[in-house]
Amino acid sequence: MLQLCYQQKYPEAGCDEAGRGCLAGAVFAAAVILPKNFKSELLNDSKKLNEKQRNELRTIIEQEAVAFAVAQVDEKQIDEINILNASLLAMHKALDQLQQPFGFIAVDGNRFKPYKEIPHRTIVQGDGKYMNIAAASILAKTYRDEYMLQLHEEFPLYHWNKNKGYATADHRTAMREHGQCKYHRKSFVLKEMQLGLW
Fold it and tell me: Which of 9, 58, 139, 148 could form a disulfide with 30 if both were Cys (CB 3.0 to 4.6 A apart)?
């Protein structure tokens, strides 16, 4: 079982994002504060769980968390400020929405911009070490998957119901055949072409 949080001196918000490496759609981020007595044998990095497990955990997290929030930054802003800054912005937006005070932020990965004057710690593979970060990864992933399913209804040619906007072979093939749509990240498409993946 994962550890609850990085430190226990202050109420801690765990943060993670989903969709950073996609060719289309918004990047999502979540922030979660778990109660001190929270326990879950199943909770882990969202990438290590199947869809059914993630959805079950999402319900548990939403019911039992002290506070949680999910935010997104769309593809247009991603192209304007780049994906790293967009991911960090989405995390800040999620933290803004938390309805309970917190005194520490634990962030998955190795990059973060200071949020107000609250101390933080970046933790590589933190979603596989701490439950509050893992919970954030579950919410970010499940909310983004739902969003991509909605976009799939509008543009089924790109198979976003299966690839969720990632650079899979079927997604790239559809882009070659049909071009880009309004939800594609134009800066990512250029990079893909430069790398010779087309």
Answer: 139
